Amino acid sequence: MRIRQRLGQRWLIGATAAVLLLTSCGQTTAPPPSATGKPVKGGTAIMAGYVGEGPSYLFPLYSASYWDVGFVPWFSYLMWRPLYVWGKNGQTVFNDSRSLAYPPVFSTNSSGDTVATITLKHWDWAGGRPVTTRDVQFWMNLLEQEKNNWAAYVPGKFPDNVKSVQYPSATKFIVTFNAAYSHLWLLGNQLTQITPIPQFAWDKTSASSRVGNYDMTPAGARAVYNYLNGQAKTTSTYATNPLWQVVDSAWQISSYDPTTNYVAFRPNPNYSGPTKPKLSHLVIEPFTKDSAEFNALESGTLSYGYVPLTDVSAIPGLKAKGYKIAYWPQASWGGILISYAPKNPATPILKQLYVRAAMTHLLDMKAILKDFEHNLGSYAAGPVPNPGGHAPGTTAYERTDPYPYSVSAAKQLLSSHGWKVVPNGTTTCQHPGTGPGECGAGITQGQPLTLNLLSNTETTLNAQLTDYIKSNFSLAGITINLHLATIGNMTSIQGTCISPATTCSWNLNLDLEFWPLGWPGWLATGGEMFGCGAGGNPGEYCNPTETRLVNLTHTSSSASAMDNYQNYFAKQQPDIFLPMPVFRISAIKDNLQGVTPQDPYLGLYPEDWYYTKK
C-alpha cells in the first residue's frame, strides 16, 4: 500500500540475557542545514497524505477489518498514543520521553513468571483530568472481552499471556505474565499494545447513558465496546462527536471529510508531553494520484510533501522553489503476500516450497533496486529489515538472495516436480502425487499454474512492478491474472480470503508495505506477522516449525533464536520478500523546522514542528 525503507537495526546479545536493541536508524542523506531566522508561533502546516486512502477508524482498539497499519500513526495516533513509544531522533530505539509511563521494572516471582511493575507519568487528558491506571484498566477490560476483534491479537500472546493485573494506586499497576519472557520483547511488542483511554468520558453503553463502571463486568465491557465501535464507524461525526475530543496526545481533530479524506487538527491545550505544539493547525491533504500530489508540491501549496521516484530529476527545481530534501527511512518489509487460506484454490500449489522458490528465481532483486528504485532501496530475503544493505540485525544468509535470478533454475525446479513448463504459455501439472518428481499434495492432473495477483496501479512503482512480475513469471509459464484495486480498497479485499471466508479472490498480493514495523509490534520477532491465527497475518501462513521459532524469539536469551528465525523464513519465502524503496523522498519548506529526523516507524510528531521568519 505505501512505499518506504527501513534504516538500521542492530541486535546486541548481552552476557546473561538476550537484549534485542535496535539502533543506527537515521537519514540516508546529510541533515538539512541549521535553521536560520526567528521561530514563529502559529501557522498551518499542510502535509501530503497517503495516495488514494485516508483514515477510516479512530477508536484505539482497532479491529482487523479497519486497521491500517500505515495510517494509524497519522490519525488516531496523533490523539491517543500507546503507553510506550518507540522511535527517537530517527533511530529505532525506545523513546522514554514520549511514553506515558516510566520504563517497566521487571522481576521474577516464585513461580518463575515475569512481573512488570509500571508507573505512569503525570499526563493529562484534554480538559485537565489526569491519566490514571483506571484508564489503563478500562482499555484492558474491553480488550479482554473483545480480543478477537483486536487487530494485534495473536492467540497465546497478549492478553492471553497475562496471568493477572493489579492496580494498587492511580499511578501504578502490576502485570504478571504466565511464564518467563524476554524483557525487551515485552517492552517492544506486548506492553506497547496498552493504550489508556478516558474511562471517565467513554465508559458508556449508548449516547444517552451516563458514564458508569460498565466495563467492570464482561457483559458491560462488551456493551461499551459495541457502542464505541459503532461511534468509530460513523466517520461523518469524527470532528463533532465530543467523545473524540477527549485526547491525551498533542492534537484534537477539528475537521474531517470522509468523502475526500481531508483531515485537520488543532493543538490540545492540555498536552503534557515533552514538547508543546507551536503550530496553530495541522492539515493532512488527500490525493488520489501521486502525480496530483507532485503537482501540488511544485505549485508550493504543500508545506511537507514528497517526490515520487519517477520525478527525482525535479529535485533541483524544488530546492530552487524553497524546499529542502530528506529521505524518509522506515523499519519495514513487504513484497508479494501469499494467501494460504483453506478456501483459496491455489493454496496446494503455493504451499510447495519449490513453487515459491521458482517464483523468487524469476525476480531479479538487483534489477528491481536499480531500475525501479533508483538504488535508494534495500533488500532482505526475510522479515528482519536490512536497511542500507548492511544492517547488523540481519544474518548473512538473509542479506543474500537465497534464490538468485535464474530463469533456467525456475524452469528446472518446476519440471523436476512434475510440471510441463511452457514459457510464455501455460505450465500444467503432468505428474500429480506426493512422491519424488510429482507436483505435490492437492495438485491435480492438468492443473494450470495460474495465479490471481491483487495489486494497485495508483502509484507508479506499483504499476511498474505489477507489469514486471507478470512478464517475468510468464518466462516459466506461470500465468498471472491481474486483480487491480484502488489503494483504499486493498485492505478490505485482502480480508475476503481470510477464514471463515468461503471464497478467495486473490492468491498473491503485491504490497510493498505489508508490514511496517511499528506500533504495536516494534520488534521484528514475527508474532503479529506470522503467528498462527494472528490478526496481522492475512495470508494465514502457519506451521509448527514457524511457531516454535517465533516463540523462541519471545523467550530465549540466545543469539541464535533471532538468527534461526530469520534464516528459516528467508529459506521458506512464506511471502516473496522484495527490495524496499525509501518510504518517501520528503520535500519540506525551508522555513518549516523540527520535521527531521523523520521517524522510521512512520510516527508523526507535529508538536515539534515550527516555522521561522527570515
Structure explained in plain terms:
The relative contact order is 0.19. The longest helix is centred in the middle third of the chain and has 16 residues, at 218-233. It is globular and about 70 Å long. It has a domain at 332-515: Dipeptide-binding Protein, domain 3 (Roll), CATH 3.10.105.10. The chain has 614 residues and is of the alpha+beta class. The chain contains 17 helices and 25 strands. A hairpin with a 5-residue loop joins β9 (162-166) and β10.
CATH architecture label name of the domain at 332-515:
Roll
Task: Round the Cα radius of gyration to an integer and report it.
Answer: 24 Å
Major sheet: order of its strands? 20-19-21-16-22
Give helix % range. Answer: 10-25%
CATH secondary-structure class of the domain at 332-515: Alpha Beta
- Fourth-level CATH superfamily of the domain at 332-515: Dipeptide-binding Protein, Domain 3
Question: What is the number of strand segments?
Answer: 25
Largest sheet: 5 strands, mixed
- Which residue ranges are poorly predicted, with pLDDT under 50 across at least 5 consecutive positions? 1-34
What general outline do the C-alpha atoms trace? Answer: globular
For the record, give the distance between the C-alpha atoms at the N and C termini, rounded to a whole number: 38 Å
CATH topology of the domain at 332-515: Dipeptide-binding Protein, domain 3
What is the tally of helical segments? 17
Strand content: 15-25%
Structural class: alpha+beta
Average pLDDT taken over every residue: 88
